[in-house]
Every structure is written in C-alpha cells, then in structure tokens.
Amino acid sequence: MDIVNSLPAAVLWDMDGTLVDTEPYWMRAEHELVESFGGTWTHELALGLVGNPLLVSAQVILDNSPVDLPAEEVVHRLQSRVVEQVGDAVPWRPGARELLAACREQGVPCALVTMSWTDLAGAVVEATEPGSFVLSVTGDRVTHGKPHPEPYETAVSELGVTAGGCVALEDSPTGVRSAVAAGVPTIAIPHVVDIPQIAGAVQIPSLSSLTPTDLLSTALGEAGARA
C-alpha cells in the first residue's frame, strides 16, 4: 500500500518531553522534594525516571532518598509542583504545537497517551486550542504503564481505529516500546534521554516542519518520508 501523503487514522501523542518540555519541571520538583527531606537528588537518578509510570518513579525516589511518604503522596506532590510550573509557562517542544494545529485543521484526531496523571494532562490540554485532543489516556487510567502496550492499546480501542493506521510520537525508550508493542508505527524524537534503535520505530531529530501527511510515511520509513 502506498501511504506517502496519506493521513493517519489518529496521532497518539506522548506528553512530557514530546508535546511539552516538562521534563525539567519534573526534575526540579524531584530535587525540591528530596532536598526538603534533607537528601540529595542526582541528575543521573532524575534521568532514570524519564518515561516511567509515576508510581514506579515514586518508588525509585523512596528507595534512593530519605523521603518518607506513601508513594501516592510522592506522585501528588511532584505533579502539583509541575502543574504550578505549567501554569507559569507551557514549554512547547519545537514543532509540536504547529503539528497539533495542522492535525486539527485537517481532521486528524489526536489522543494524549501519557504516564502523567489526569490533573497535569488536563492542565496541558487546557493550554491547547479547543478540539486539539479528542481523548486522554493517563497513567492513573491504566493498570499497566509504559513500556506495557496497555496505554496505546487503550487509546486505539477508545478511538475505534486500527493500530497500524495510527502514528505514535514518543521521546523515551519506555514510551517507544509501549507504542511498538501495541502495533502502532512510531516516530521517536529523542530529547532528554537517548533512545536505542527499536524495530518498529523511526528516529527523527525534531517535529519541526513535519506535517500530518508526512507522519505515516515517516513512521514506516517509506520512500518520500521526511529526512
């Protein structure tokens, strides 16, 4: 099938690091929380949390710091701090807002598939133009987080589309593995952490200048795809 210049059935967006550059916000929140308990949080530990389900990240913090809180409370404190920072400034990733707008204008449904919980996802969605996202699958909605395929399988099911006709946009190894495992052609845009070459995913340096009609051909590595 010639899919060059074909529109995808849906675009499935990771949020942190792909749509918005909130990873530094998360890292700041982690440092502040650990330091408030008299501990030290390293950049290496912070990098290890990128793309994780939030309860997994919370447990890493508990295991590597003097923070003494229930894991759910760790998540709520971190996310509340990130929401505050998003309220001050929404840090869009290069090309993301433009691609999102083009998808809306061309009638391509977009879903947010993120391990952040509903409060933060809602704050980001509210900062987009109305109708930008028709669905949000958040970390508190699924039983198994990324890299398990459930988040993307949930989005595909609720949108009523086929996985192979969609495109996922991701910036982390766990996110890429989740989308690929769900059978979704995936575009990886490395940002804070490196992404190894993963079968079923194509890496590009930026979403800048990418259009909705480029997405399937790029994700599938077809001739004529964006370089």
Strands, helices and their partners?
Layout: E1 11-13, H1 23-36, H2 43-47, H3 54-63, H4 71-88, H5 96-105, E2 110-113, H6 118-126, E3 135-137, H7 150-159, E4 167-170, H8 173-181, E5 186-188, E6 201-203, H9 215-220
Parallel strand pairs: 1-2, 1-4, 2-3, 4-5, 5-6
Helix pairs in contact: 1-4, 3-4, 4-6
Q: What are the salient characteristics of this protein?
A:
227 residues, alpha/beta, DNA polymerase, domain 1, six-stranded parallel sheet, globular
Please give a structural write-up.
The protein is of the alpha/beta class and 227 residues long. The chain has two domains: 141 residues, HAD superfamily/HAD-like (Rossmann fold), CATH 3.40.50.1000; 66 residues, Putative phosphatase, domain 2 (DNA polymerase, domain 1, Orthogonal Bundle). Helices cover 40% and strands 9% of the residues. It has nine helices and six strands, in the order βαααααβαβαβαββα. The protein has a six-stranded parallel sheet with strand order 3-2-1-4-5-6, sandwiched between helices. α6 links the parallel β2 and β3. α3 crosses α4 and α4 packs parallel to α6. The radius of gyration is 17 Å and the shape is globular. 44% of the residues are buried. The C terminus is likely disordered.
CATH superfamily of the largest domain: HAD superfamily/HAD-like
Number of domain modules: 2
Cα-to-Cα separation, first versus last residue = 21 Å
CATH fold field value of the largest domain: Rossmann fold
Mind summarizing the main beta sheet? 6 strands, parallel
Shape: globular
Q: What is the strand arrangement across the widest sheet? A: 3-2-1-4-5-6
Total beta strand runs: 6
Q: In angstroms, what is the radius of gyration?
A: 17 Å
CATH class descriptor name of the largest domain: Alpha Beta
Tell me the series of helices and strands, N- to C-terminal.
EHHHHHEHEHEHEEH
**Unreliable stretches, pLDDT < 50, 5 or more residues?**
223-227
Query: Helicity level, as a percent range?
Result: 40-55%
Structural class assignment: alpha/beta
